[in-house]
Amino acid sequence: MDIRLVERDRYKQEIAALVLRDLPEWFGIEESTKEYIETVIKYPFVAAFDHNLPIGFYSIRKENDKVLDMYVLGVLKQYHGTGVGTRLQEFVNQYANDHGYEYLMVLTLAEKKQNKEYLMTRKFYLNQGFIDFYQNDDIFDSQNPCQIMMKALK
């Protein structure tokens, strides 16, 4: 497996489309998925490859001078549980440290929603050293409570 930054905008979008469309349980709202695919060109983009085939990615966005937001990310379903997400997260941790960030943040569906897929997502983040920072019922919409999770890098 190879992890690297991707610079070409079109390639970022192709990888994001490939991965997000493989994850309808997480990215089943077409309008939102299209917005993610279009927007990844604005931000640094880290991808995982298996024999030069893209298998996962993180699109990361500067929230402020101290906080890096994991804007959108995913790993092809067939690679879940194989360490791809952990390797991507390690790369992002190093990238954040190298660029002077002190914290990582991610927005996800709150635990109180009891969504099976997002409970797996939360477990992944908790295993990566994130903590629940703030929960709000209005960030996404009233039916999808948002959990902001944070990780200190130092």
TrEMBL record:
The keyword Transferase applies. It comes from the Bacteria. SUPFAM superfamilies: Acyl-CoA N-acyltransferases (Nat) (SSF55729). CDD domains: NAT_SF. Keywords: Transferase. Residues 1-154 form the N-acetyltransferase domain. This is GNAT family N-acetyltransferase. One of its GO terms (molecular function) is acyltransferase activity, transferring groups other than amino-acyl groups. It comes from Candidatus Xianfuyuplasma coldseepsis. The keyword Transferase applies. Pfam families: Acetyltransf_7.
